[in-house]
Amino acid sequence: MSVTYLEAIRAAQEKAMQDDPTVFIYGQDVGKFGGAFKATKNLAEKFPGRVIDSPISEDAMVGLAVGAAMEGMRPLVEMQFADFSTVGLNQMLNHAATTYWRTGKPCPMVLRLPSGGTPGSGPFHSQSMEAIYAHYPGLVVMTPATVEDAYSMLLEAIRMPDPVVFCEHKLLYYHLKAKELPVEALPAFKAHVARAGRDVTCVAYSAMLHEALAAAEELAGEGYETEVVDLRTVKPLDTDTILASVARTGRLLAVGESWPWGGTSAEVVARVASEGFELLDAPPRRLNAKDTPIPYHPNLWAAHRPTAVRIAEALREVLRY
Amino acid sequence: MERVSRAMLRARVLEDKLASLYRAGRIVGGVYLGKGQEGLSAAGGAALRKGDIFAPLIRDMAGRLAFGEPLVDAVRTYLGSRLGPMKGRDGNIHRGDLSRGILPMISHLGAMISATAGVLLAKRMKKEKGYVGLTSAGDGATSTGSFHEGLNMAAVERLPLVVVVADNGYAYSTPNERQFACADLLDRAKGYGVEGHGVDGTDAEACWEVVGRAVERARGGAGPQLVVGRLLRLCGHGEHDDALYIDDGIKSSDRGRDCMVVMREKMNSRGLGQDWDGWEKEAQSEVEKAVMQVAQEPVPDPFEEDWRATATLGAAEAVQKG
């Protein structure tokens, strides 16, 4: 028996709906069809009236969730692709995210974003949106990298009193497997040291965790021990775990699949530079995708995003300084 | 109808007071009035009952008061009292009280339609009965994607939603002919598959009848209702705006009538002018009292402010630390 990242997401939704009658799912094709990626397969049959097909109206989908959350429900909105959530940004950033601050009343809802690049997906089905959402106050932004986290963090997200943006990586959907669903969850909002090492810290999240782990393995063959920190949640950002790692290694590379201007890796480097400057033996570095739209052709796509090979190169540069 | 008339009067008296406080420099930020729209707005608020949902927009002082928002809360939000529903975190028209069923609007036009639909869907899922949600829009808001998405979605779900469009001729300075190309916004109802109701927005009694009917149609299960009231904004977009762009011809047309004058004349013709005057006096003393009271109330203190944007304690603490 094994369970994939996608099956874990489906199982978490099922458990949340079993546990809490106020949880419902709203999204395009999520009902009988089971969703574009089948993340809601069979849920409409199991929970009649609680898995609802929406029109292609991302703004209204998020707006509806805001209203339903205000009325005491826990809506779980599936965007067909993270990229299309730009159409619903206004409702998420200006409505959901401001509700608690403006009214003192919680706005518990989850926006599930099938995120990140896969070969052949091109400019509009490949984006990583976490930085945009994290920039606005009032949202929690999760970026699970493992099957276990996909399950337990989605359950956490649904139980949370705040609007949560849940960035799940499409590349991990079918290929990433675990033996079984986790019984215990890692602590909420804490980053996780996915691989211990003493020479250099590599901070990553979502699909980049696996590229970073592969790069660490490659460097281990060259005699360098890389500590890989999985952020798990990018907002709030667990600066303590990052600083503790840099205190051990003295060197930092922050990796993100999203674009280089601003963003999560920039935030990590900025925090380490300002709060842990004296811990550093080398300039902290970042590695991101290229600053162009995401290409369609697999040859171009593979060169556009950070890969284990490029991460290993960047780590060597940090180590050589 | 007395509820409508009283709300109109209280709104007009209060807004005249707010305008003078603004000119005296006592209000920070904008002041946005509903002059000329009191009848249509009050009809919406008065047609609702306890347990219903009201998502007002920028020119809905009268509707808010008719629905039951305490007048003092409006004053508190404009003057930034810490005791107001927004505690100084948001101001002027951006106020609401979820415990009273009043959604606090965001500035982005059309956005409240889907949010109101969400509340109604939640009520349906909770098996509540007999509720209605009413939200307002202007002619400008009808051009947004959010308006279209929200009304279409509510129609698909056949929710008990009433959208009242106050077609006041101008979106800020932009006239109708630069805003939409259909002859009448009411024509759109058919496209959405919802029932449409047109009304002379300067006639509060007609508004009361038409909006009331729309609310009852929605309550009875007939799905979303689109009401379009034609009228004219008798002030600027905000009090900072002299509105010189408003055409003189439209001002002197029937569309430019002041609903307060129209209603007062109706009362007079029925020998009820004294009632109207009495209500106006009551409104004046209520407004004076509220302004005096709020002037004494504490204002927000940045040192005591709870600077947290999330309700999750762990998240908030971690964010603050970061």
Textual characterization of the structure:
The complex is a heterodimer of chains A (321) and B (322). Chain A is α/β, with parallel strands linked by helices and 321 residues long. The model of chain A has no long low-confidence stretch (mean pLDDT 97). Helix content of chain A is 38%, strand content 18%. In chain A, strand 2 (23-27), helix 2 and strand 3 (51-53) form a beta-alpha-beta unit. Chain A contains 11 helices and 14 strands. A 7-stranded mixed sheet of chain A has the order 3-2-4-5-7-6-12, with helices on both faces. Chain B is of the alpha/beta class and 322 residues long. Chain B has 12 helices and 7 strands. Classes of the chains: A alpha/beta (321), B alpha/beta (322). Chains A and B meet through helix 3 and helix 4 of A and helix 5, helix 6 and helix 12 of B.
Strand order of the largest sheet of chain A: 3-2-4-5-7-6-12
Tell me the fraction of residues in β-strands of chain A, as a range. Answer: 15-25%
Helical stretch tally of chain B: 12
Question: Using DSSP, what is the number of strands of chain B?
Answer: 7
Low-confidence stretches of chain A: none
CATH superfamily grouping of chain B:
Thiamin diphosphate (ThDP)-binding fold, Pyr/PP domains
- Please identify the top-level CATH class of chain B: Alpha Beta
The domain tally of chain A reads 2
Per CATH, which architecture of chain B? 3-Layer(aba) Sandwich
- SSE run of chain B: HHEHHHEHEEEHEHEHHHH
Derived from helix and strand composition plus strand pairing, the structural class of chain A reads: alpha/beta
Rg for CA atoms of chain A: 19 Å
Please tell me the overall pLDDT of chain A: 97
* CATH architecture level-2 label of the largest domain in chain A: 3-Layer(aba) Sandwich
Give the strand order of the largest sheet of chain B, numbering strands 1, 2, ... along the chain: 1-2-3-7-6
